[in-house]
Amino acid sequence: MTSPIRVAVVGLGRAGWDIHVSQLRGRNDFALAACVDPVAERRAQAEGELKCRTFPDLKSALRAKLADLVVVASRSVDHAPDALAALKAGCHVACEKPMATTLKDADRMIAAAKAAKRKLFIHQNYRWHDDSRHLREIIDS
């Protein structure tokens, strides 16, 4: 077995904590290495429950070089800057929706991933729900 993918989750709000942290807990193929959030109480909860390092900002977390993958679940307006910083630091990125708030930022994110030879994923948590799959079938028919 290969080593687990080391993950840093940026933003411990609803999406960061309830979706991403929840899905990563207890997995052998991923290791929650760091969490980033400006709110001290959220960081303290992550330290206590997840036993991972925490940081008040992404820049500090990236300097620590703890992650292979950065999950961007910060405020929507911060998705592009956070993803760009993580890609520049050599990390793969899984970004929550919306990918970016402008087409220009989305294009910059794609270009940065290509330049860094890293993967950029946009999280689509409803993709495999029955209604979404049914709509895909209708579109394809």
Describe the structure concisely:
The chain is of the alpha/beta class and 141 residues long. It is 45% helix and 19% strand. The protein has 6 helices and 6 strands.
Describe the structure.
The longest helix is centred in the last third of the chain and has 14 residues, at 103-116. Helix 4 (79-88) runs parallel beside helix 5 (103-116). This protein starts with a strand and ends with a helix. It is of the alpha/beta class. The protein contains six helices and six strands. The model has no long low-confidence stretch (mean pLDDT 94). 45% of the residues lie in helices and 19% in strands. It has helices at 14-24, 40-50, 58-64, 79-88, 103-116, 130-140, and strands at residues 5-10, 30-36, 53-55, 69-72, 92-95, 120-122. A six-stranded parallel sheet has the order 3-2-1-4-5-6, with helices on both faces. The relative contact order is 0.14.
Question: Which key terms come to mind for this protein?
Answer:
141 residues, alpha/beta, six-stranded parallel beta sheet, 6 helices, 6 strands, globular
How many helices does DSSP assign? 6
What is the CA-atom radius of gyration, in angstroms? 16 Å
Oligomer: single chain
| N to C succession of SSEs | EHEHEHEHEHEH
- Measured by DSSP, the beta-strand proportion falls in 15-25%
Low confidence ranges: none
SSE topology:
Blueprint: E1 5-10, H1 14-24, E2 30-36, H2 40-50, E3 53-55, H3 58-64, E4 69-72, H4 79-88, E5 92-95, H5 103-116, E6 120-122, H6 130-140
Parallel strand pairs: 1-2, 1-4, 2-3, 4-5, 5-6
Helix pairs in contact: 4-5
